[in-house]
Amino acid sequence: xxxxSGSAELNQRIAEWLRWDKNEKNLEEIRELARRxxxxxxxxxxxxxxxxxxxxxxxxxxxxxxxMNDLVVIQSAQGLAKYLLQCYPSEEDRSRGxxxxxxxxxxxxxxxxxxxxxxxxxxxxxxxxxxxxxxxFVPFAVLELKCLAGIMVTASHNPxxxxxxxxxxxxxxxxxxxxxxNIQTSIMENLEPLESSWNLELLLxxxxxxxxDQMVELYFRKLAANVPQPxxxxxxxxxxxxxxxxxxxxxxxxFVVKAFECARLPAxxxxxxxxxxxxxxxxxxxxxxxxxxxxxxxxxxxxxETGCDVILANDPDADRLACAEKDAKGEWRVFSxxxxxxxxxxxxxxxxxxxxxxxxxxxCYLIASTVSSKMCRSIAxxxxxNFIETLTGFKWMGNKSxxxxxxxxxxxxxxxxxxxxxxxxxxxxxxxxSAACHLATLACYLRATSNQSLADxxxxxxxxxxxxxxxxxxxxxxxxxxxxxxxxRIRNMGPGGDAQQDANYPQTVGAGRFKIxxxxxxxxxxxxxxxxxxxxxxxxxSSQMITFSFENGAVVTLRxxxxxxxxxxxxxxxxxxxxxxxxxxxxxxxxxxxxxVEELLQPKENNLTPRxx
Length: 613
Fold this sequence. Notes:
By secondary structure, this protein is of the alpha/beta class. The chain has 4 domains: about 1-50, no CATH class; about 50-215, Alpha-D-Glucose-1,6-Bisphosphate, Chain A, domain 3; about 340-445 and about 455-460, Alpha-D-Glucose-1,6-Bisphosphate, subunit A, domain 3 (Alpha-D-Glucose-1,6-Bisphosphate, Chain A, domain 3, 3-Layer(aba) Sandwich), CATH 3.40.120.10; about 465-610, Alpha-D-phosphohexomutase, C-terminal domain (TATA-Binding Protein), CATH 3.30.310.50. It is about 40% helix and about 20% strand. The protein contains 19 helices and 23 strands. A hairpin with a 5-residue loop joins strand 21 (about 555-560) and strand 22.
Protein backbone atom coordinates (compact mmCIF):
# COMPACT_ATOMS: atom_id res chain seq x y z
CA UNK A 1 0.00 0.00 0.00
CA UNK A 2 1.55 3.30 -1.14
CA UNK A 3 0.95 6.46 0.87
CA UNK A 4 2.75 9.66 1.87
CA SER A 5 1.56 11.61 4.91
CA GLY A 6 4.15 14.33 4.40
CA SER A 7 5.92 13.17 7.58
CA ALA A 8 8.70 10.58 7.45
CA GLU A 9 8.07 9.66 11.10
CA LEU A 10 4.35 9.12 10.56
CA ASN A 11 5.01 7.14 7.37
CA GLN A 12 7.29 4.86 9.41
CA ARG A 13 4.72 4.40 12.20
CA ILE A 14 1.98 3.55 9.68
CA ALA A 15 4.27 1.02 8.00
CA GLU A 16 5.15 -0.53 11.36
CA TRP A 17 1.50 -0.87 12.29
CA LEU A 18 0.60 -2.50 8.98
CA ARG A 19 3.55 -4.87 9.33
CA TRP A 20 3.04 -5.82 12.97
CA ASP A 21 -0.71 -5.93 13.67
CA LYS A 22 -2.50 -9.24 13.07
CA ASN A 23 -5.91 -8.10 14.25
CA GLU A 24 -7.73 -7.70 10.95
CA LYS A 25 -10.28 -5.19 12.30
CA ASN A 26 -7.63 -2.87 13.73
CA LEU A 27 -5.40 -3.34 10.68
CA GLU A 28 -8.22 -2.30 8.36
CA GLU A 29 -8.96 0.71 10.59
CA ILE A 30 -5.43 2.07 10.05
CA ARG A 31 -5.45 1.13 6.33
CA GLU A 32 -8.73 2.98 5.79
CA LEU A 33 -7.50 6.10 7.59
CA ALA A 34 -4.38 6.08 5.39
CA ARG A 35 -6.47 5.59 2.23
CA ARG A 36 -8.58 8.62 3.16
CA UNK A 37 -5.51 10.71 3.98
CA UNK A 38 -6.61 11.27 7.59
CA UNK A 39 -3.06 12.19 8.61
CA UNK A 40 -4.00 14.21 11.71
CA UNK A 41 -6.05 11.31 13.09
CA UNK A 42 -3.23 8.89 12.28
CA UNK A 43 -0.70 11.21 13.89
CA UNK A 44 -2.78 11.31 17.10
CA UNK A 45 -3.12 7.51 17.05
CA UNK A 46 0.44 6.52 16.09
CA UNK A 47 2.93 9.24 17.08
CA UNK A 48 2.05 9.04 20.79
CA UNK A 49 2.05 5.92 22.99
CA UNK A 50 -0.01 4.93 25.99
CA UNK A 51 2.37 5.10 28.95
CA UNK A 52 2.23 3.67 32.44
CA UNK A 53 0.48 6.16 34.72
CA UNK A 54 -1.56 6.14 37.96
CA UNK A 55 -3.20 2.83 37.08
CA UNK A 56 -0.82 1.23 34.60
CA UNK A 57 -2.19 1.62 31.08
CA UNK A 58 -5.66 2.97 30.40
CA UNK A 59 -7.20 4.25 27.19
CA UNK A 60 -9.86 3.96 24.53
CA UNK A 61 -10.09 0.67 22.59
CA UNK A 62 -9.19 1.39 18.97
CA UNK A 63 -6.31 0.89 16.54
CA UNK A 64 -3.14 2.87 17.24
CA UNK A 65 -0.15 2.95 19.58
CA UNK A 66 -2.00 5.52 21.73
CA UNK A 67 -4.90 3.18 22.52
CA MET A 68 -5.77 -0.20 24.02
CA ASN A 69 -5.69 -3.00 21.42
CA ASP A 70 -4.11 -6.40 20.75
CA LEU A 71 -0.81 -5.01 19.48
CA VAL A 72 -0.28 -2.52 22.32
CA VAL A 73 -1.18 -5.21 24.88
CA ILE A 74 1.32 -7.63 23.31
CA GLN A 75 4.04 -4.96 23.27
CA SER A 76 3.31 -4.13 26.92
CA ALA A 77 3.39 -7.79 27.96
CA GLN A 78 6.65 -8.36 26.06
CA GLY A 79 8.25 -5.38 27.80
CA LEU A 80 7.01 -6.46 31.22
CA ALA A 81 8.17 -10.07 30.66
CA LYS A 82 11.68 -8.96 29.67
CA TYR A 83 11.87 -6.59 32.64
CA LEU A 84 10.80 -9.36 35.05
CA LEU A 85 13.50 -11.65 33.65
CA GLN A 86 16.03 -8.85 34.07
CA CYS A 87 15.00 -8.35 37.72
CA TYR A 88 14.66 -12.08 38.43
CA PRO A 89 17.14 -13.91 36.19
CA SER A 90 17.29 -17.24 38.05
CA GLU A 91 15.27 -20.28 36.96
CA GLU A 92 13.93 -20.63 40.50
CA ASP A 93 12.55 -17.08 40.50
CA ARG A 94 11.10 -17.48 37.03
CA SER A 95 9.13 -20.53 38.21
CA ARG A 96 7.11 -18.29 40.57
CA GLY A 97 5.16 -17.11 37.55
CA UNK A 98 2.65 -14.30 37.08
CA UNK A 99 -1.09 -14.05 37.73
CA UNK A 100 -3.59 -12.59 35.25
CA UNK A 101 -7.21 -11.53 35.76
CA UNK A 102 -9.80 -9.69 33.72
CA UNK A 103 -13.15 -7.94 34.10
CA UNK A 104 -16.29 -8.10 31.94
CA UNK A 105 -15.41 -5.36 29.43
CA UNK A 106 -15.08 -5.87 25.72
CA UNK A 107 -11.71 -7.52 24.90
CA UNK A 108 -10.64 -7.95 28.54
CA UNK A 109 -10.44 -11.74 28.33
CA UNK A 110 -8.61 -11.59 24.98
CA UNK A 111 -6.06 -9.08 26.30
CA UNK A 112 -5.41 -11.34 29.29
CA UNK A 113 -4.99 -14.40 27.05
CA UNK A 114 -2.62 -12.64 24.65
CA UNK A 115 -0.56 -11.50 27.66
CA UNK A 116 -0.50 -15.07 28.98
CA UNK A 117 0.94 -16.28 25.66
CA UNK A 118 3.78 -13.75 25.91
CA UNK A 119 4.79 -14.98 29.38
CA UNK A 120 4.41 -18.65 28.46
CA UNK A 121 6.73 -18.15 25.47
CA UNK A 122 9.34 -16.82 27.92
CA UNK A 123 8.89 -19.99 29.98
CA UNK A 124 7.25 -18.02 32.81
CA UNK A 125 4.36 -20.00 34.35
CA UNK A 126 0.98 -18.25 34.27
CA UNK A 127 -1.92 -18.32 36.71
CA UNK A 128 -4.82 -17.15 34.51
CA UNK A 129 -8.22 -16.80 36.16
CA UNK A 130 -10.69 -18.80 34.05
CA UNK A 131 -13.54 -16.32 34.52
CA UNK A 132 -14.07 -12.68 35.45
CA UNK A 133 -12.79 -11.66 38.87
CA UNK A 134 -12.87 -8.63 41.12
CA UNK A 135 -9.60 -6.71 40.82
CA UNK A 136 -8.53 -7.46 44.45
CA PHE A 137 -8.17 -11.15 43.54
CA VAL A 138 -5.10 -10.37 41.44
CA PRO A 139 -2.96 -8.73 44.16
CA PHE A 140 -4.31 -11.31 46.61
CA ALA A 141 -3.03 -14.12 44.36
CA VAL A 142 0.35 -12.40 43.86
CA LEU A 143 0.77 -12.38 47.63
CA GLU A 144 -0.53 -15.89 48.35
CA LEU A 145 1.09 -17.66 45.37
CA LYS A 146 4.31 -15.61 45.74
CA CYS A 147 4.19 -14.60 42.07
CA LEU A 148 6.62 -12.23 40.40
CA ALA A 149 3.85 -9.92 39.23
CA GLY A 150 0.13 -9.61 38.56
CA ILE A 151 -1.87 -8.03 35.75
CA MET A 152 -5.52 -7.07 35.91
CA VAL A 153 -7.16 -6.16 32.62
CA THR A 154 -9.73 -3.52 33.56
CA ALA A 155 -10.60 0.12 33.06
CA SER A 156 -12.45 0.14 36.39
CA HIS A 157 -15.27 2.71 36.18
CA ASN A 158 -14.24 4.37 32.90
CA PRO A 159 -16.68 4.60 29.96
CA UNK A 160 -17.47 1.43 27.98
CA UNK A 161 -15.10 2.42 25.14
CA UNK A 162 -12.06 2.13 27.43
CA UNK A 163 -9.91 -0.66 28.79
CA UNK A 164 -6.78 -0.85 30.87
CA UNK A 165 -3.84 -2.86 32.16
CA UNK A 166 -3.08 -2.61 35.88
CA UNK A 167 0.25 -4.08 37.03
CA UNK A 168 1.16 -5.33 40.50
CA UNK A 169 4.76 -5.95 41.54
CA UNK A 170 6.24 -8.89 43.47
CA UNK A 171 5.22 -7.33 46.80
CA UNK A 172 1.56 -7.43 45.54
CA UNK A 173 1.20 -3.64 45.57
CA UNK A 174 0.70 -1.62 42.39
CA UNK A 175 3.88 -0.55 40.62
CA UNK A 176 5.55 2.72 41.60
CA UNK A 177 8.79 4.37 40.41
CA UNK A 178 11.24 3.21 39.26
CA UNK A 179 9.38 0.11 38.02
CA UNK A 180 6.79 2.03 35.95
CA UNK A 181 9.48 3.92 34.03
CA ASN A 182 11.68 0.82 33.69
CA ILE A 183 8.77 -1.22 32.32
CA GLN A 184 8.03 1.57 29.83
CA THR A 185 11.69 1.53 28.72
CA SER A 186 11.55 -2.25 28.34
CA ILE A 187 8.38 -1.98 26.25
CA MET A 188 10.11 0.46 23.90
CA GLU A 189 12.99 -2.02 23.53
CA ASN A 190 10.60 -4.88 22.63
CA LEU A 191 8.07 -3.29 20.30
CA GLU A 192 8.16 -5.82 17.50
CA PRO A 193 5.65 -8.57 18.34
CA LEU A 194 6.97 -12.11 18.27
CA GLU A 195 5.02 -14.60 16.14
CA SER A 196 4.42 -16.61 19.30
CA SER A 197 2.73 -13.64 20.98
CA TRP A 198 -0.27 -14.07 18.69
CA ASN A 199 -0.41 -17.86 19.12
CA LEU A 200 -3.31 -18.66 21.45
CA GLU A 201 -2.46 -22.38 21.22
CA LEU A 202 0.14 -21.64 23.88
CA LEU A 203 -2.81 -21.52 26.30
CA LEU A 204 -2.77 -25.33 26.17
CA UNK A 205 0.63 -25.30 27.92
CA UNK A 206 1.02 -27.26 31.15
CA UNK A 207 2.58 -24.09 32.59
CA UNK A 208 -0.86 -22.45 32.53
CA UNK A 209 -3.03 -22.93 35.63
CA UNK A 210 -6.34 -21.56 36.88
CA UNK A 211 -6.11 -20.20 40.46
CA UNK A 212 -9.83 -19.39 40.74
CA ASP A 213 -11.09 -22.10 43.13
CA GLN A 214 -8.01 -22.04 45.34
CA MET A 215 -7.88 -18.24 45.66
CA VAL A 216 -11.62 -17.75 46.14
CA GLU A 217 -11.72 -20.31 48.96
CA LEU A 218 -8.64 -18.79 50.64
CA TYR A 219 -9.80 -15.19 50.22
CA PHE A 220 -13.12 -15.81 51.94
CA ARG A 221 -11.54 -17.89 54.68
CA LYS A 222 -9.25 -14.94 55.47
CA LEU A 223 -12.09 -12.43 55.16
CA ALA A 224 -14.20 -14.39 57.68
CA ALA A 225 -11.22 -14.47 60.06
CA ASN A 226 -10.99 -10.66 59.89
CA VAL A 227 -14.57 -10.25 61.18
CA PRO A 228 -14.67 -10.82 64.97
CA GLN A 229 -16.58 -14.03 65.57
CA PRO A 230 -18.75 -12.58 68.37
CA UNK A 231 -19.93 -9.90 65.94
CA UNK A 232 -20.91 -12.55 63.39
CA UNK A 233 -22.71 -14.59 66.05
CA UNK A 234 -24.39 -11.79 68.00
CA UNK A 235 -25.13 -9.13 65.39
CA UNK A 236 -24.99 -10.41 61.81
CA UNK A 237 -26.89 -13.67 62.07
CA UNK A 238 -30.20 -12.31 63.35
CA UNK A 239 -30.01 -8.76 62.02
CA UNK A 240 -33.28 -7.24 60.76
CA UNK A 241 -31.31 -5.06 58.32
CA UNK A 242 -31.52 -5.76 54.60
CA UNK A 243 -29.12 -4.50 51.95
CA UNK A 244 -29.73 -3.66 48.30
CA UNK A 245 -26.63 -4.26 46.20
CA UNK A 246 -25.54 -3.07 42.75
CA UNK A 247 -22.62 -4.56 40.82
CA UNK A 248 -22.90 -1.63 38.35
CA UNK A 249 -22.88 -4.09 35.40
CA UNK A 250 -19.56 -5.42 36.66
CA UNK A 251 -18.01 -8.49 38.25
CA UNK A 252 -18.75 -8.00 41.96
CA UNK A 253 -22.03 -9.85 42.52
CA UNK A 254 -20.85 -13.47 43.11
CA PHE A 255 -18.04 -12.26 45.38
CA VAL A 256 -20.24 -10.02 47.53
CA VAL A 257 -22.80 -12.84 47.82
CA LYS A 258 -20.05 -15.11 49.14
CA ALA A 259 -18.67 -12.39 51.43
CA PHE A 260 -22.10 -11.97 53.05
CA GLU A 261 -22.44 -15.74 53.39
CA CYS A 262 -19.08 -16.15 55.11
CA ALA A 263 -19.89 -13.36 57.60
CA ARG A 264 -23.46 -14.75 58.01
CA LEU A 265 -24.96 -11.43 56.95
CA PRO A 266 -28.52 -11.18 55.59
CA ALA A 267 -28.62 -12.12 51.88
CA UNK A 268 -28.22 -9.14 49.57
CA UNK A 269 -31.05 -8.00 47.29
CA UNK A 270 -29.30 -7.38 43.97
CA UNK A 271 -30.41 -4.85 41.37
CA UNK A 272 -31.28 -7.37 38.61
CA UNK A 273 -30.56 -5.05 35.67
CA UNK A 274 -27.02 -4.37 36.97
CA UNK A 275 -26.19 -7.73 38.54
CA UNK A 276 -24.17 -9.41 35.78
CA UNK A 277 -21.23 -8.20 33.67
CA UNK A 278 -22.41 -6.09 30.74
CA UNK A 279 -19.75 -4.29 28.67
CA UNK A 280 -22.40 -1.84 27.43
CA UNK A 281 -23.19 -0.57 30.99
CA UNK A 282 -26.60 0.08 29.51
CA UNK A 283 -28.47 1.51 32.53
CA UNK A 284 -25.96 4.19 33.62
CA UNK A 285 -24.35 7.19 31.94
CA UNK A 286 -21.11 6.59 33.87
CA UNK A 287 -20.56 3.13 35.47
CA UNK A 288 -19.12 4.80 38.54
CA UNK A 289 -20.90 4.74 41.93
CA UNK A 290 -18.68 7.68 42.93
CA UNK A 291 -21.01 9.82 40.79
CA UNK A 292 -23.59 9.66 43.60
CA UNK A 293 -27.37 9.49 43.20
CA UNK A 294 -27.28 9.55 39.39
CA UNK A 295 -25.59 6.12 39.40
CA UNK A 296 -27.86 4.70 42.12
CA UNK A 297 -31.31 5.41 40.65
CA UNK A 298 -32.22 1.72 40.15
CA UNK A 299 -30.75 0.81 43.55
CA UNK A 300 -32.92 3.41 45.28
CA UNK A 301 -36.03 2.26 43.42
CA UNK A 302 -35.42 -1.34 44.47
CA UNK A 303 -34.64 -0.35 48.07
CA UNK A 304 -37.86 1.68 48.28
CA GLU A 305 -39.85 -1.24 46.88
CA THR A 306 -38.31 -3.82 49.23
CA GLY A 307 -38.12 -1.70 52.38
CA CYS A 308 -34.31 -1.68 52.57
CA ASP A 309 -32.57 1.16 54.39
CA VAL A 310 -29.00 0.61 53.14
CA ILE A 311 -27.59 0.41 49.59
CA LEU A 312 -24.14 -0.93 48.77
CA ALA A 313 -22.65 -0.56 45.28
CA ASN A 314 -19.37 -1.63 43.75
CA ASP A 315 -17.78 -0.14 40.67
CA PRO A 316 -17.50 -2.55 37.69
CA ASP A 317 -14.23 -4.19 38.81
CA ALA A 318 -15.37 -4.25 42.47
CA ASP A 319 -12.40 -2.53 44.03
CA ARG A 320 -14.47 0.48 45.14
CA LEU A 321 -17.55 0.68 47.37
CA ALA A 322 -20.34 3.26 47.57
CA CYS A 323 -23.05 3.36 50.24
CA ALA A 324 -26.37 5.16 50.66
CA GLU A 325 -28.70 5.14 53.67
CA LYS A 326 -32.32 6.21 54.05
CA ASP A 327 -32.83 8.82 56.77
CA ALA A 328 -35.80 9.30 59.12
CA LYS A 329 -37.59 11.46 56.54
CA GLY A 330 -37.29 8.76 53.89
CA GLU A 331 -34.61 10.66 51.95
CA TRP A 332 -31.51 8.92 50.61
CA ARG A 333 -28.11 10.09 51.76
CA VAL A 334 -25.15 8.98 49.65
CA PHE A 335 -22.06 8.93 51.85
CA SER A 336 -18.88 10.42 50.49
CA UNK A 337 -15.68 8.40 50.39
CA UNK A 338 -14.36 10.53 53.24
CA UNK A 339 -17.41 9.80 55.41
CA UNK A 340 -17.13 6.06 54.73
CA UNK A 341 -13.38 6.31 55.47
CA UNK A 342 -14.15 7.77 58.89
CA UNK A 343 -16.72 5.06 59.68
CA UNK A 344 -14.56 2.17 58.46
CA UNK A 345 -11.40 3.59 60.07
CA UNK A 346 -13.15 3.68 63.43
CA UNK A 347 -14.60 0.21 62.79
CA UNK A 348 -11.16 -1.23 61.97
CA UNK A 349 -9.96 -0.11 65.40
CA UNK A 350 -13.08 -1.49 67.10
CA UNK A 351 -12.61 -4.89 65.42
CA UNK A 352 -8.91 -5.00 66.32
CA UNK A 353 -9.68 -4.23 69.95
CA UNK A 354 -12.30 -6.98 69.98
CA UNK A 355 -9.92 -9.57 68.53
CA UNK A 356 -6.75 -8.49 70.38
CA UNK A 357 -7.89 -6.80 73.63
CA UNK A 358 -4.48 -7.23 75.26
CA UNK A 359 -2.50 -5.48 72.48
CA UNK A 360 -1.49 -1.83 72.46
CA UNK A 361 -2.48 0.41 69.54
CA UNK A 362 0.93 2.11 69.55
CA UNK A 363 2.22 0.00 66.64
CA CYS A 364 -1.03 0.24 64.63
CA TYR A 365 -1.43 2.46 61.58
CA LEU A 366 -4.16 4.20 59.64
CA ILE A 367 -3.23 5.47 56.16
CA ALA A 368 -4.92 7.96 53.82
CA SER A 369 -3.99 9.74 50.62
CA THR A 370 -3.13 13.42 50.82
CA VAL A 371 -6.38 14.55 49.13
CA SER A 372 -8.53 12.50 51.52
CA SER A 373 -10.11 13.66 54.78
CA LYS A 374 -7.89 14.11 57.82
CA MET A 375 -10.56 12.45 60.00
CA CYS A 376 -8.47 9.29 60.38
CA ARG A 377 -5.58 11.48 61.57
CA SER A 378 -7.87 12.98 64.22
CA ILE A 379 -9.03 9.51 65.31
CA ALA A 380 -5.42 8.28 65.47
CA UNK A 381 -4.32 11.30 67.52
CA UNK A 382 -7.07 10.78 70.13
CA UNK A 383 -6.93 6.97 70.28
CA UNK A 384 -3.13 6.61 70.31
CA UNK A 385 -2.52 5.13 66.85
CA ASN A 386 -0.22 6.29 64.08
CA PHE A 387 -1.42 8.06 60.94
CA ILE A 388 0.47 8.33 57.65
CA GLU A 389 -0.40 10.39 54.60
CA THR A 390 0.73 9.34 51.12
CA LEU A 391 0.44 10.62 47.58
CA THR A 392 -2.87 10.08 45.77
CA GLY A 393 -3.54 6.51 44.69
CA PHE A 394 -3.50 3.10 46.30
CA LYS A 395 -0.17 2.27 44.71
CA TRP A 396 1.41 4.57 47.32
CA MET A 397 -0.68 3.30 50.23
CA GLY A 398 -0.08 -0.33 49.24
CA ASN A 399 3.68 0.14 49.07
CA LYS A 400 3.71 2.12 52.35
CA SER A 401 1.81 -0.81 53.92
CA UNK A 402 4.46 -3.25 52.64
CA UNK A 403 7.14 -1.08 54.26
CA UNK A 404 5.30 -0.89 57.60
CA UNK A 405 4.52 -4.62 57.68
CA UNK A 406 8.19 -5.42 57.03
CA UNK A 407 8.98 -3.41 60.18
CA UNK A 408 6.57 -5.50 62.25
CA UNK A 409 3.88 -2.83 62.36
CA UNK A 410 0.12 -3.45 62.05
CA UNK A 411 -1.77 -1.73 59.25
CA UNK A 412 -5.43 -1.60 60.25
CA UNK A 413 -6.92 0.47 57.46
CA UNK A 414 -6.14 2.63 54.44
CA UNK A 415 -8.47 4.70 52.31
CA UNK A 416 -8.81 7.32 49.61
CA UNK A 417 -11.72 9.69 49.14
CA UNK A 418 -12.53 8.11 45.75
CA UNK A 419 -14.44 5.36 47.69
CA UNK A 420 -11.40 3.07 47.89
CA UNK A 421 -10.86 1.12 51.13
CA UNK A 422 -8.26 -1.41 52.31
CA UNK A 423 -9.61 -3.10 55.43
CA UNK A 424 -6.65 -5.14 56.71
CA UNK A 425 -3.57 -5.98 54.59
CA UNK A 426 -4.98 -9.29 53.29
CA UNK A 427 -5.11 -7.42 49.98
CA UNK A 428 -2.60 -4.58 49.60
CA UNK A 429 -4.93 -2.57 47.41
CA UNK A 430 -8.43 -1.17 47.60
CA UNK A 431 -11.03 -3.91 47.89
CA UNK A 432 -14.75 -3.27 47.43
CA UNK A 433 -15.72 -6.83 48.34
CA SER A 434 -14.21 -6.89 51.84
CA ALA A 435 -15.30 -3.28 52.39
CA ALA A 436 -18.93 -4.24 51.64
CA CYS A 437 -18.73 -7.07 54.16
CA HIS A 438 -17.22 -4.92 56.91
CA LEU A 439 -19.53 -1.95 56.34
CA ALA A 440 -22.59 -4.21 56.44
CA THR A 441 -21.29 -5.79 59.67
CA LEU A 442 -20.82 -2.30 61.14
CA ALA A 443 -24.43 -1.42 60.20
CA CYS A 444 -25.71 -4.60 61.90
CA TYR A 445 -23.57 -3.92 64.98
CA LEU A 446 -24.86 -0.35 65.30
CA ARG A 447 -28.50 -1.42 64.92
CA ALA A 448 -28.10 -4.15 67.56
CA THR A 449 -26.00 -2.34 70.16
CA SER A 450 -27.26 1.27 70.06
CA ASN A 451 -30.06 1.39 67.48
CA GLN A 452 -27.93 3.83 65.50
CA SER A 453 -27.80 4.37 61.77
CA LEU A 454 -24.50 4.88 59.95
CA ALA A 455 -25.29 8.62 59.84
CA ASP A 456 -25.90 8.65 63.61
CA UNK A 457 -22.53 7.01 64.21
CA UNK A 458 -20.77 9.46 61.90
CA UNK A 459 -22.19 12.39 63.89
CA UNK A 460 -21.05 10.73 67.11
CA UNK A 461 -17.53 10.40 65.69
CA UNK A 462 -17.58 14.11 64.80
CA UNK A 463 -18.54 14.89 68.40
CA UNK A 464 -15.61 12.86 69.71
CA UNK A 465 -12.90 13.65 67.17
CA UNK A 466 -13.99 16.98 65.67
CA UNK A 467 -16.26 17.85 62.75
CA UNK A 468 -14.66 17.37 59.35
CA UNK A 469 -16.61 18.64 56.35
CA UNK A 470 -15.38 18.01 52.85
CA UNK A 471 -16.24 19.03 49.33
CA UNK A 472 -14.86 17.30 46.26
CA UNK A 473 -15.79 17.57 42.60
CA UNK A 474 -14.29 18.11 39.18
CA UNK A 475 -14.52 19.81 35.81
CA UNK A 476 -13.87 18.08 32.50
CA UNK A 477 -11.06 19.55 30.41
CA UNK A 478 -10.30 17.72 27.17
CA UNK A 479 -7.38 19.91 26.06
CA UNK A 480 -4.03 19.35 27.84
CA UNK A 481 -2.67 22.80 26.80
CA UNK A 482 -5.60 24.43 28.62
CA UNK A 483 -4.78 22.48 31.79
CA UNK A 484 -1.14 23.59 31.48
CA UNK A 485 -2.25 27.22 31.07
CA UNK A 486 -4.57 27.08 34.10
CA UNK A 487 -1.88 25.77 36.44
CA UNK A 488 0.81 28.07 35.03
CA ARG A 489 -1.47 31.02 35.77
CA ILE A 490 -2.07 29.77 39.34
CA ARG A 491 1.70 29.67 39.88
CA ASN A 492 1.98 33.31 38.75
CA MET A 493 -1.00 34.98 40.45
CA GLY A 494 0.78 36.38 43.49
CA PRO A 495 2.19 39.87 44.01
CA GLY A 496 5.85 38.91 43.54
CA GLY A 497 6.72 35.58 45.03
CA ASP A 498 9.93 34.07 46.32
CA ALA A 499 12.60 34.53 43.68
CA GLN A 500 14.70 31.70 45.09
CA GLN A 501 11.84 29.21 44.87
CA ASP A 502 10.27 30.79 41.79
CA ALA A 503 7.00 30.75 43.74
CA ASN A 504 4.38 33.37 42.93
CA TYR A 505 1.17 31.74 44.14
CA PRO A 506 -1.98 33.60 45.20
CA GLN A 507 -2.00 34.80 48.81
CA THR A 508 -5.77 35.07 49.21
CA VAL A 509 -9.06 34.15 47.54
CA GLY A 510 -12.48 35.75 47.82
CA ALA A 511 -11.25 39.34 47.41
CA GLY A 512 -8.82 38.96 50.31
CA ARG A 513 -11.29 37.37 52.75
CA PHE A 514 -9.65 33.95 52.88
CA LYS A 515 -5.91 34.16 53.52
CA ILE A 516 -3.59 31.37 52.34
CA UNK A 517 -1.06 30.30 54.98
CA UNK A 518 0.93 27.75 52.98
CA UNK A 519 1.24 26.31 49.48
CA UNK A 520 2.52 22.87 48.51
CA UNK A 521 3.11 22.14 44.83
CA UNK A 522 3.88 18.48 44.15
CA UNK A 523 4.46 19.22 40.46
CA UNK A 524 7.36 21.61 41.08
CA UNK A 525 8.43 20.28 44.50
CA UNK A 526 7.78 23.57 46.35
CA UNK A 527 6.36 23.64 49.90
CA UNK A 528 6.25 26.93 51.77
CA UNK A 529 5.59 25.15 55.09
CA UNK A 530 8.98 23.42 55.03
CA UNK A 531 12.09 25.27 56.29
CA UNK A 532 13.94 24.63 53.02
CA UNK A 533 10.86 25.22 50.86
CA UNK A 534 10.96 21.65 49.48
CA UNK A 535 8.07 19.19 49.53
CA UNK A 536 8.48 16.04 51.64
CA UNK A 537 6.16 13.84 49.56
CA UNK A 538 7.44 12.61 46.16
CA UNK A 539 6.91 15.01 43.27
CA UNK A 540 6.05 14.43 39.63
CA UNK A 541 6.25 16.87 36.73
CA SER A 542 3.91 14.66 34.68
CA SER A 543 0.79 15.66 36.67
CA GLN A 544 -0.52 18.83 38.29
CA MET A 545 -1.15 19.02 42.04
CA ILE A 546 -1.23 22.14 44.24
CA THR A 547 -2.47 22.26 47.87
CA PHE A 548 -3.45 25.48 49.65
CA SER A 549 -3.63 25.57 53.46
CA PHE A 550 -5.71 28.51 54.71
CA GLU A 551 -5.40 30.45 57.95
CA ASN A 552 -8.96 29.43 58.93
CA GLY A 553 -8.01 25.71 58.91
CA ALA A 554 -9.32 24.80 55.46
CA VAL A 555 -7.19 22.76 53.08
CA VAL A 556 -7.87 22.74 49.33
CA THR A 557 -6.09 20.68 46.68
CA LEU A 558 -6.35 21.11 42.91
CA ARG A 559 -5.04 18.27 40.77
CA UNK A 560 -5.38 16.58 37.42
CA UNK A 561 -6.66 13.02 37.12
CA UNK A 562 -4.21 10.31 36.12
CA UNK A 563 -6.88 8.33 34.24
CA UNK A 564 -9.54 10.79 33.00
CA UNK A 565 -9.67 14.28 31.36
CA UNK A 566 -10.55 16.01 34.62
CA UNK A 567 -9.33 18.80 36.89
CA UNK A 568 -10.34 17.72 40.39
CA UNK A 569 -10.61 19.70 43.60
CA UNK A 570 -10.70 18.48 47.19
CA UNK A 571 -11.55 20.78 50.11
CA UNK A 572 -11.84 20.15 53.84
CA UNK A 573 -12.53 22.16 56.97
CA UNK A 574 -11.34 20.48 60.19
CA UNK A 575 -12.88 21.61 63.48
CA UNK A 576 -11.50 20.82 66.91
CA UNK A 577 -13.34 18.30 69.13
CA UNK A 578 -16.18 20.13 70.87
CA UNK A 579 -16.64 22.85 68.23
CA UNK A 580 -20.36 22.74 67.46
CA UNK A 581 -20.99 25.24 64.65
CA UNK A 582 -21.05 22.56 61.97
CA UNK A 583 -23.36 24.49 59.65
CA UNK A 584 -21.07 27.51 59.84
CA UNK A 585 -18.08 25.35 58.86
CA UNK A 586 -20.01 23.90 55.92
CA UNK A 587 -21.15 27.33 54.68
CA UNK A 588 -17.64 28.79 54.88
CA UNK A 589 -16.15 25.84 53.00
CA UNK A 590 -18.84 26.09 50.29
CA UNK A 591 -18.10 29.77 49.83
CA UNK A 592 -14.34 29.14 49.67
CA UNK A 593 -14.75 26.39 47.08
CA UNK A 594 -16.89 28.65 44.89
CA UNK A 595 -14.22 31.38 45.08
CA UNK A 596 -11.39 28.96 44.28
CA VAL A 597 -13.18 27.44 41.29
CA GLU A 598 -14.13 30.84 39.83
CA GLU A 599 -10.85 32.64 40.56
CA LEU A 600 -8.28 29.90 39.97
CA LEU A 601 -9.89 27.50 37.47
CA GLN A 602 -11.98 30.12 35.61
CA PRO A 603 -14.41 27.54 34.11
CA LYS A 604 -16.13 29.98 31.72
CA GLU A 605 -12.94 31.45 30.29
CA ASN A 606 -11.38 28.01 29.92
CA ASN A 607 -14.51 26.27 28.61
CA LEU A 608 -14.51 23.68 31.42
CA THR A 609 -17.51 21.37 31.76
CA PRO A 610 -18.73 20.89 35.36
CA ARG A 611 -19.71 17.56 36.84
CA UNK A 612 -23.30 16.80 35.84
CA UNK A 613 -24.54 15.44 39.19
